[in-house]
From TrEMBL:
One of its GO terms (molecular function) is flavin adenine dinucleotide binding. Keywords: Cytoplasm, FAD, Flavoprotein, FMN, NADP, Oxidoreductase. Its cofactor is FAD. It comes from the Eukaryota. Signal peptide: none annotated. GO terms for cellular component: cytosol. It holds the Pfam family NAD_binding_1. Residues 79-326 form the FAD-binding FR-type domain. This is FAD-binding FR-type domain-containing protein.
Length: 481
């Protein structure tokens, strides 16, 4: 609006005879924060809420803190379904290789938890203690103070309520740790707009004002989003800015749970859960190394530490198949993760009854470097295993960079088009998992080719046939960026 008024004033000063500042002073262009923070006397806060470390107390603390936060997850299920303890953590890729994929095994610290193959687990990552302390110090906050956070205008008292009440005070440092992503997520444009009102150095105020303007949008994108600058890095670049904690709570991106496809079967591992985690770093345009918050944290965990990890279970887009359903699985890279659970489960089921065949197409760069779970797949593709040809199945691996001409899973699918078509005619379901870039659409196009060729119909008819397969719940895709 300020930019609009300035432009109108230049076009015709008579629009604002008393000047733009008379219409609305600059200081009033910023609204009040939407949240209000109440600080509580530490002596009035029951010690039970701050010193207990048993799982029940931790569970309630997480629920309480995340229910207080104004972010979207405050409407989600905030109480963890269970806690996990890491028992195994090793790399699946060759040491020194540019890709690093981990196989991580967790003990589930709850006997009541049940999950199915194809399900997803969400974990709440821990942030770097150094980053948390630096953020608190940079913002002149008292980490030991007890607070409650509530919408502005809503009265807040220290309640005489039970432990489930979301208004029970929490340590400020705990609130930051569990709800505010200070060292991995980039702030939004409004963060810079608000920052300028609290900048005392004139050159910082001018730069922030430029970033918040339409003219500065491209430069802000280069500085912030493309570089994936974190809230802490932005605050350190503008040292004169001292934002009130209410604004920080509202504008710092919320700490989100990270979702992973479960790569184990509960039938095979009754009290465990396995994950396949890609921790490959990337480089920003200004050559800064970045790694995902959760994957970096998991990489650094030692099973001997006994770290307790809160977890939630959700249904993904890969429903657990019955043992009588033939399967065609396509899972290049870490897309193989959920299908490891599928194969484990079917191997257990084969001991007590008949099972339908599985065709599995896997892909990676190099056979010697990133052939994830190599021994597992090969063992199940031999000696009557669930992926063996004796059982009507098959395992096919494409190594895209082991020869001059790249070979992908689609090439292996075309080589076995007759087997794929025969299994589809027997009622097989298709499951595709992996990168969300080109892979899912390329695989779908490959199925179009196969159906068209083997059924002797035009491509348009093959597309309609596959779309009908989707509507019938026999074509499932789970893709991630």
């Amino acid at each position: 609006m300020s930019s609009l008024w300035n432009t109108l004033s230049k076009m015709n000063p008579k629009f604002f005879p008393n000047g733009i500042d008379f219409l609305i002073p600059d200081a009033q262009l910023i609204d009040s924060p939407k949240v209000q923070i109440t600080y509580h006397d530490v002596d009035k806060v029951h010690s039970h809420f701050s010193t207990d470390s048993d799982l029940k107390c931790i569970e309630m603390q997480i629920e309480r803190v995340r229910s207080m936060h104004p972010g979207k997850f405050s409407r989600d299920k905030n109480r963890p379904d269970c806690f996990l303890r890491m028992v195994e953590n090793h790399s699946l890729t060759r040491a020194g290789y540019e890709k690093n994929v981990l196989h991580i095994e967790f003990e589930v610290l709850s006997s009541a938890i049940e999950y199915e193959v194809g399900d997803i687990v969400e974990v709440l990552p821990s942030q770097s203690p150094i980053a948390i302390d630096t953020f608190i110090q940079r913002c002149n906050l008292n980490p030991e103070s007890f607070i409650t956070v509530h919408p502005r205008g809503v009265e807040n008292h220290l309640p005489n309520a039970n432990i489930n009440d979301s208004k029970i005070p929490i340590k400020l440092k705990t609130f930051v740790e569990l709800t505010m992503d200070v060292a991995s997520a980039s702030p939004r444009r409004y963060f810079f707009e608000v920052m300028r009102f609290f900048a005392t150095a004139e050159h910082e105020k001018e730069r922030l004002q430029y970033f918040a303007s339409p003219e500065g949008r491209d430069d802000l994108y280069q500085y912030n989003q493309r570089e994936r600058r974190t809230v802490l890095e932005v605050l350190e670049d503008f040292p004169s800015v001292q934002m009130p904690f209410e604004w920080l709570v509202q504008l710092v991106p919320p700490l989100k749970k990270r979702a992973y496809s479960i790569s184990s079967s509960q039938l095979a591992h009754p009290n465990q859960l396995h994950l396949t985690v890609n921790v490959t770093p990337w480089t920003t345009p200004f050559k800064r190394k970045r790694t995902g918050l959760c994957s970096k944290w998991l990489t650094g965990l030692d099973p001997q530490q006994g770290v307790i990890i809160p977890a939630w279970f959700i249904k993904g887009s890969l429903p657990a198949p019955p043992p009588s359903l033939p399967l065609i699985l396509i899972g290049p890279g870490t897309g193989c993760a959920p299908f490891r659970g599928f194969v484990e489960e079917r191997a257990i089921q084969s001991r007590s009854g008949s099972i339908a065949p599985i065709l599995f197409f896997f892909g990676c760069w190099n056979e010697d470097n990133d052939f994830l779970y190599r021994d597992f797949w090969l063992s199940h593709s031999r000696n009557g295993g669930v992926l063996s040809e004796e059982k009507g199945g098959g395992f096919y691996a494409a190594f895209s960079r082991d020869q001059p001409q790249k070979v992908y899973v689609q090439h292996k699918m075309r080589e076995n088009s007759r087997r794929i078509w025969n299994l589809l005619c027997e009622g097989a379901s298709i499951y595709v998992a992996g990168s969300s870039t080109k892979m899912p659409s390329d695989v779908f196009s490959c199925f179009e080719e196969i159906v068209s060729k083997e059924n002797g119909v035009p491509r348009e008819s093959a597309v309609r046939w596959l779309r009908a397969l989707e509507r019938a719940g026999r074509y499932h895709v789970e893709a991630w960026s």
